[in-house]
Design brief:
The chain is an alpha/beta fold. It has a single domain, classed as NAD(P)-binding Rossmann-like Domain (Rossmann fold, 3-Layer(aba) Sandwich). It has eight helices and seven strands.
């Protein structure tokens, strides 16, 4: 049985990853700061889920969680680490308060860095790390300066770790989703709804992707699972876009008569 750690695993893409690994027969250690959501997840998915209430912004809590996981493994190695915890915050560099900047960097960047520091030593040879970044590591929408910066930093971290840990047989990759139908996306849709329903806003954002919709967490989870599998044994240092073609096109519309 493979043994997997997923941060931010109680909701969104993290939860999708937990569900995919459980379906594959893995034992999954789920880290999240939402105790109630963790309890609900374990009640739904059963004993393959081991829930730990952890805020990834707390590096000491991550180190303590790694100790708990190590004890639970009983000498067996960890197969994979998936870093999916993250927050979305808005603002230009001028508008973003120090507290918001610190929040984004502590959770989205530090939460990955220190999760890797704590759990990579538990990985077996042939083990894998997958980091959830974003298409906003490549191109930004308006008013997401800190968020976009943080997601870009994750790609640099992935490349550095891929080089550092290749000799240990540990692969490190990133997935970069476009819009995904998660509680975080729906919260943003509600914030910018302008009186429309959340479903309307999500559908509108979906139409900006060439495939014409937003992704499901399960679709991103399939790519995460692939990257941790033997099928991806020669893939490391990669950033895989799971964006419905969003970054493949240019936002230029030809006049109707020239089509």
């Amino acid at each position: 049985m493979s043994q997997v750690v997923v941060t931010g695993g109680a909701a969104g893409i993290g939860r999708g990853a937990v569900e995919r690994f459980v379906a594959a027969g893995a034992r999954v250690f789920v880290l999240d700061r939402d105790t109630e959501a963790l309890a609900a997840l374990r009640a739904e998915l059963g004993d393959q889920v081991n829930a730990l209430t952890v805020d990834v912004g707390d590096r000491d809590a991550l180190a303590a969680a790694a100790g708990q996981v190590s004890a639970a493994l009983g000498g067996e190695p960890l197969s994979a680490l998936v870093c999916a915890a993250g927050v979305q915050r808005y603002g230009t560099v001028v508008e973003t308060p120090d507290t918001v900047y610190d929040d984004v960097m502590t959770i989205n960047v530090g939460g990955v860095f220190f999760a890797c520091r704590s759990f990579v030593p538990l990985l077996s040879r042939g083990g894998s790390v997958v980091v959830v970044s974003s298409v906003q590591a490549y191109a930004a929408q308006h008013g997401v300066a800190a968020y976009s910066m943080g997601k870009g930093a994750l790609l640099s971290l992935v490349r550095a770790m891929a080089v550092d840990h290749a000799a240990d047989g540990i692969r490190v990759n990133a997935v970069c989703p476009g819009s995904v139908d998660t509680p975080m996306l729906r919260s943003a849709a509600a914030e910018f709804s302008g009186g429309r329903s959340t479903d309307e806003v999500v559908a509108e954002w979906g139409r900006s992707h060439p495939l014409g919709r937003v992704a499901t967490p399960g679709e991103v989870a399939e790519v995460i699972h692939f990257l941790t599998s033997p099928a991806a044994a020669f893939v490391t240092g990669a950033d895989v876009k799971v964006d419905g073609g969003l970054t493949a096109g240019l936002a230029v519309v030809l006049p109707e008569e020239t089509k």
